[in-house]
Each structure stands twice: as structure tokens, then as C-alpha cells.
Structure prediction request, 405 residues.
Amino acid sequence: MNILLLCDEYPPGKHGGIGTAVQTLARELVAAGHIVVVAGFYDYSYGGQCHFLDKGVQVYRFKRKLKIPFKKVEIVGKAINKLYMISGIWDLEIKNSLLKYHVFLEGLIKQYEIDLVERPDFNDYIRFCRKKRVLEKLSVPVVVKLHGSMTYFAEEAGKEIKPYIKETEYWYLKEAEAISSVSSYTAMKTAEYFRLDRPIEILYNGIEPQEETVYDKESGTVVFTGALSEKKGIFQLLKAWNIVVKKMPDVRLSVLGKGDIQKAASFLDGKAMETVTFMGHVTRDELFMKMKQTEVAVFPSYAECFALAPMEAMVNMAAVIYTTRASGPELITNGENGLLIDPDDVQGIADAIIRLLEDGSERKKIAINGKRRIEEAFLIQNIAQKNLDFYRKVIQKKNRNNYFN
Prediction:
């Protein structure tokens, strides 16, 4: 099968969970003998090569031409970016770029004889627009995978969403040949928020297998990986960490992820601050090495679709504390292969951390069961095959409809 995956954050470079999930799937599909092309709609400032090969995956970055002469994180860059937004310059540039991107994709479809296109429900460019701007329909079947749209996360947080954003995201869902989702929870809530009345296939994210490891961890170590944002629960974790350190002063917390470190650190008191290391964004290899060394991994998220972070910890035998919210219970059975906590319960988060650090027997049991859980249900080889089965169903249905029409 020849597959085109649309992804605007494919590694290397700035990326989140979608980029990692797409890369993991794409590489496995190539390893299984399929032709896989990844294309994305990028801001000019993203950097990196416009075309490269990643373990057999053909990766293309279509870069919009308009650029800001300063980084968006700098004061001048932020001011120019705001001016572009208010004046509608970004909106017009994106409108014109989407037309060129459509031509570019049709070229790839022809060149690689693409059978099917998959795109995510999240599209970063939408936030720079002032009205609905969409990529017109392509010449082959397009499926949408739910990783978490802007509408989804806004609704989950009880925040308002601009009508044009919801309208744009709904258009992509409505026009899709079929829809899949990385979790049952995300499928249910997306259907509710967009009033969808159509089947949604559940295709969980997958992860690469890791070598059998002896359970050998550094004593008193805890890790958090992810964006330093309220949504990921890092501020709640740091509040809880103040309580943990009062009872266990020799423990250490490593925080891996991008975001405002100064803001995050403001939630720590003096003694707790000495026990926390903010490592910023790290490579996946560095992340996995940290997981292999760490006893406990904590992810008190408020909103997720099907996060890779707890899976990465589990496959590396770190005992995981995860959220009761969203898809948390789809991954973890509380007390068996992890602990589930309410992110609003700061004392509960602290108690769970202390419980696993103090009880080595339970910690090891949960770590071993967590690794087994991943190996039985979420290894990428099996997940990739389920994606292929879904793709084939979509193509066969499309061919039948074309035959009878």
C-alpha cells in the first residue's frame, strides 16, 4: 500500500506527541514493506530540510513563504506576529499557501501512486486565520485521525472556541472518507462536541519494543515528561512535590519538557526547589535513558487523547502515576499496572508518589505489570497492522461506491 500521512510537526525539529506518533507509525509501515510519504504545512521559520529520508520514510516540508525577520519568541517578533494577525496578513498568506499546498500534495499523490491520505484533526495553521480556510479535497480517499483538535481541548477545559476554528475543524471531519481516534474517550467526546453521527474506529498510539531490562533503578527518583502547561498537570505535581519533600527530603524530581521554567519553579518552596532539575526539551533517546533509571513517573494531566509519555515510562519499567481524567483508565488499571489520581487532588498526588517510593515491592510489581501491559496491547507492530486493516477497509468501500456510481 502507498500511504501519505499529513503531519505538520514531524521530527526532528519542534514537535509534540502527534509528530512522534506519526513517525513511529510511518517507520513501522515502511518496515512492513509499504511506501510511506509524510508531508506537512510548515511556517517558514520552522527550519530544517524540505525533503529528507527517515528510515525509508519520504518526508516533505511545504514551507509557507512569508516570514518574520525575528523569532516569534522575541519581543519584536511577537509584535510583528500580532500585527500580521490583526491586519489579516497571515490569513491571506495562508489562503494562498493552501492552494499551492494542494497542488504540491497532488504532485506527491501522482509521483508515489498514493492509495490513501491520513491527516490529523489538529491543524496549527488555523489559529493564524481570521475565517475558515481549508485544504480542498484531494483526489484519493482521506481519513482523519483524532489526536485532539483545538475544539476538543477547549471544550475539555471549559473554554470558548472561536466559531471559525470549530467550523474549519468540522469541515475536515465532515469531508473525511472515514474517521479514527487514538482513544475511545476522544472519539466519544469529539462526536459530542461536533455532533457527529458516524462510526469512529479506535486505533491507539503504538510504541516501539524495548529490550528486556533488569529492574535496576536509582533510589528516590521521580520524573515528569511533557509540556510545562496547566493542561499537563505539571503545576499540580510541583505543588504536591512540596509535600513529598517534607516527608522524604532525599528524593529527586527530573522535569523534562519545553515551557516556562520560571513559572513552573514558582510553585516550589525553597527546600523542594533544591531537589528538582528542569532539563528542558530532550531527545527521545535521552528521555528513554532517563525512564530506564527512574523509579516513578508522574503525569497528572487534565486533558489527553492517548498520551505517549506514560507509555514510554511503562515500557521502560518506571512505575506510572497517571490521571483519572480522559483516556487515563483506558491505559491503566488502578493498582495493577499503575496508579490513577485526580489532578485536582494535590494531596492525593503526593500520597501516590510517597506510596510508590516507600513500598519497593508494590513499585516493582506495578513497573513489571506496566511493561507487560504495553507489550500485550500497544507495541507498534500490532498497532500498525490495525491501521493497515482500517486503511484497506476504507479503500475497498470507496472502490465499491465508485463502481456502483
User: Anything to note?
Assistant: Residues 380-404 form the longest helix (25 residues). The first strand starts at residue 2 and ends at 6. The radius of gyration is 22 Å. Residues 2-202 form a domain with the Rossmann fold fold (CATH 3.40.50.2000).
